[in-house]
Each structure stands twice: as C-alpha cells, then as structure tokens.
Write a structure and sequence with these properties.
The protein is an alpha/beta fold. It is built from 15 helices and 12 strands. α4 packs antiparallel against α5 and α13 runs antiparallel to α14. About 2% of the residues have low confidence.
C-alpha cells in the first residue's frame, strides 16, 4: 500500500500547520527531508524530535524548523507507521513541504484516506469512523457529545451485542436445516427465540425512534417563529442571529416565504425558521407563504409565538403537542396600561435586541428534548437509520413466522437482520459504500 501524505490542519495561514504521513515507508521518507540529532528510523515510537526540513536532494535548501512526531505500527491512528510534522503555518511552507514529501516518495492522500486505513486496519469500525467526521463538523456541544459517544463505540457495542445473540440462534436454525430428515430434532428453543426477537425488536424500535432527536441535534433543533403579520417575527430572527438576516418592514405581509438560519445557544444548535405572518388574505402568493408557515409549525420541535404587545385585540395561538414560548413583542412601544396587563408575560423589544430570556428558555427546552438521547445511544446518521429500519423489518418477519414458517425462511430473515446490523458497523459492506462514505471526509483525516 502506498505511503500517503496530506496537510491535516485547515487551509490557510496560522501559527502552526500539521502535515501527516502514513504507510510502510512513512518514517524512511520523513528521514529524507528531516535533519535532526538522530535518524527518525532509529527513533522510538510515540516520540517527538526537533530539527530542520531540507530538500530531499538539494540538502542546502532549508525550509523550516519543525517538530516531528513518530508513531510506529500498530500504535497509531491508522494502524500503520505514521509521522506528523508540525511546521510554521505559512501556506508557502505547507505547500512546499508537501511537494518535497511527494518528491521523496509520498502519494497525496485522498479525502478520508487516513480514517479509511484506520478502518481497514481494524483500529475502528465503520460507525466509529463516521463519528470522526461528525466530531470534526460538530457546531455545538450537544452535537460534539453525540459524535464523541459514537466514536467511543456507543452504538457499535450495542449492535455487536445484538448480532452475537442473533448469530447464536441463526447457527442453531442452520443446524436444524442440516438435519432436516429428523423432523422431531430441534436445536433452537422457539420460546427463547421469541423472547430474543421481542427484545431485539423493542431495542431496534427505540434506536430508530431516536433518529428524529439525533437528526435535530446534528442539523439544529427546528424552531418556528410564528404569529400575525407585523408582530416582529423577522426582527426577532435578526436579533437572535445577530445580523440582518430577514427583511424588516412595517408593511403587512412582507415575509412571503420561510427564512432559515442556525444559531448555537447554551451548547445546542437551533435552526430558526421565520415564517410568513398569518392573516386572512386574498393574495395568492401570501396564501402560499401562510400555508408554509403552518407546515413549519407542524415540523418544528419548538414554536416561538410572537404577539404584537401594542395591539389590545391580539389573540394567542394554540400550539398542541410541542413546547412553545409566547412572546409579547414591542415592549418599547407599549403604554403603561399594556405593560401592566402583560407584567406576568414574557415581554421584550426585539428591535432593541432583548433576547436573553428567550435564549434561556430555548436552552431549558432543548435540554429536556435532548437530555435522554445524549445520556444513552442516539442515532443521528441517515445511513444508520436506513439500515436499522431494514433490520427492524426483518426481525418483525421473524416474530410473525416463528410459529408457522419453515426454518429456511426463518434463517433468511435472521440473516437479513444480521446483514443490516453489520452494515452499520462495517462488518458487511462494499467498496462502493466505503468510497462514498470516506469521500465526504476532509483531506488529511
């Protein structure tokens, strides 16, 4: 297998940059450009060395002073010999050092190739490898915690246990098929298989149900901002995200479509959805916007109902089945009588950026929505969800067929369930699937 190299730190200038090398020739190639007190090939693993980078053939050409970290197989991220060179973060130095490594015998790494080698060398399974990308992309504490739990083998351990239990009974069913001539011979206890199938079905249902929460943690908890026209919904969106994201106007019906933006509050990522104002109108385009507003409420996990506190006849909306926060806006324009009327309500001036209490309540609701998911195992990857749905369908076929289906069909359904579970962790997969997964990684990871 070729020795690969790539810049592992983000593109651009910085204090330092890290160039990573992995493969059988990683240390010997690094020796061609590194000049220190000792040769790297004679160095111990997990050691750091100070020296200079020289051109592999024009040894008088000095590029930079660096620190070189040595990791010997199998005790490295990829399971191969690895070298990490920490140099100054000039883009010129980074690109030149990478070019010199290629001249010395390295091949430029493809996206995700380091992590793919870690998977192929048994350093992690496929679910854990995908968690590496999720961890790098995490935009909130909740998303980081979710990815870190998966990286530490949370879902992998769970599915491995389920597969081991299924494999035991599948082998017994297969053994019965080998002795099909002896109809009275039964190796697999149907009562125990019933109990196992029920247990696995229940757990798979829990895991697939958790995808909605996991997806919200990963992509942002959807928060619909709704209310009548000119209540200040767009002003509130702008105040929460800290920029002029939506057009604000005193003209009723300015917002004709949903506008989305994300914000991290209290360690949670929220996807804010500003909606068209709800009112009776004959305007066809505005009616379409109002229809989308209602759809946004249905899909949202949290609803912010904004009311113009200066309008005495404004009515509150009834939000069924999901957390909601009623906000009386335009407190800066309220009369003393109106302030008295709303003294126990949440009154703010979105125009003046008064969002602290809203952010506090959003965080409290988010903790309630995601707390249980982060304490246990939660599915956030669409590929995992699809595979677990197929496993769930297969185990339900097993449940239905235990009393009236032949061993051959039971074996097929059990195998379908095993295969689906194995796809999540990579025990069963194809090169095409692997290439697709790792191609979405960043270069150098």
């Amino acid at each position: 297998m070729k020795t690969i190299a790539a810049i592992s730190t983000p593109f651009g200038s910085g204090g330092i940059a890290v160039i990573r090398i992995s493969g059988e020739q990683a240390i010997s190639i690094a020796d061609k450009v590194f000049v220190g007190k000792t040769y790297l090939q004679s160095a111990q693993g997990n050691s750091v060395h100070y020296g200079e980078i020289h051109h592999p053939t024009r040894h008088k050409d000095v590029l930079d002073e660096v620190l070189v970290s040595i990791f010997r197989a199998p005790h490295s991220f990829t399971g191969e010999d690895m070298v990490e060179i920490s140099c100054h973060g000039s883009t010129y130095i980074q690109q030149t050092l990478l070019q010199w490594l290629v001249d010395a015998g390295c091949t430029l790494a493809q996206a995700g190739e380091f992590t793919q080698r870690a998977f192929l060398n048994g350093k992690m399974d496929l679910a854990e490898a995908e968690a590496v990308a999720d961890l790098i992309a995490a935009r909130s504490k909740a998303e980081k915690d979710l990815a870190f739990n998966q990286l530490r083998g949370g879902i992998s351990s769970e599915l491995t246990t389920l597969r081991e239990q299924l494999l035991h009974f599948t082998s017994l069913i297969e053994l019965e098929l080998d002795f099909a001539d002896h109809e009275d011979l039964q190796f697999a206890d149907r009562t125990q298989l019933h109990q196992l199938a029920d247990t696995i079905e229940h757990r798979l249902q829990q895991l697939t149900d958790s995808f909605q929460t996991g997806n919200a943690i990963r992509n942002g908890i959807p928060v619909a901002i709704v209310g009548a026209t000119n209540a200040g919904k767009s002003t509130l969106l702008n105040a929460l995200v800290g920029e002029e994201r939506a057009i604000v106007s005193d003209i009723h019906g300015t917002t004709r479509d949903t506008i989305e933006d994300t914000i991290s509050i209290g360690g949670h990522l929220f996807r804010l959805i500003d909606t068209a104002g709800i009112r009776n109108t004959t305007d066809t385009i505005e009616q379409m916007g109002i229809s989308r507003s209602k759809q946004a409420v249905e899909k949202a996990a949290i609803v912010l109902h904004v009311i113009d506190g200066t309008q005495d006849n404004e009515e509150t909306m009834t939000i069924d089945g999901k957390p909601s926060i009623t906000i009386y806006n335009k407190a800066d324009k309220m009369t003393s009588i109106q302030r008295q009327r709303h003294q126990t309500d949440l009154c703010i001036s979105a125009k003046q950026g008064e969002t602290a209490e809203i952010q506090k309540r959003l965080t409290e609701i988010a903790q309630q929505l995601t707390g249980a998911a982060l304490d246990g195992i939660c599915i956030s990857n669409a590929r995992h969800y699809e595979a677990l749905k197929r496993a769930l369908e297969a185990i339900r076929r097993v449940q239905k067929g235990l009393n009236n289906v032949s061993g051959e069909f039971l074996s097929m359904d059990l195998q379908d369930c095993l295969n689906a579970l194995g796809e999540v962790t990579g025990q069963i997969t194809s090169q095409e699937v692997l290439n697709n997964i790792f191609s979405k990684f960043c270069i150098g990871k």
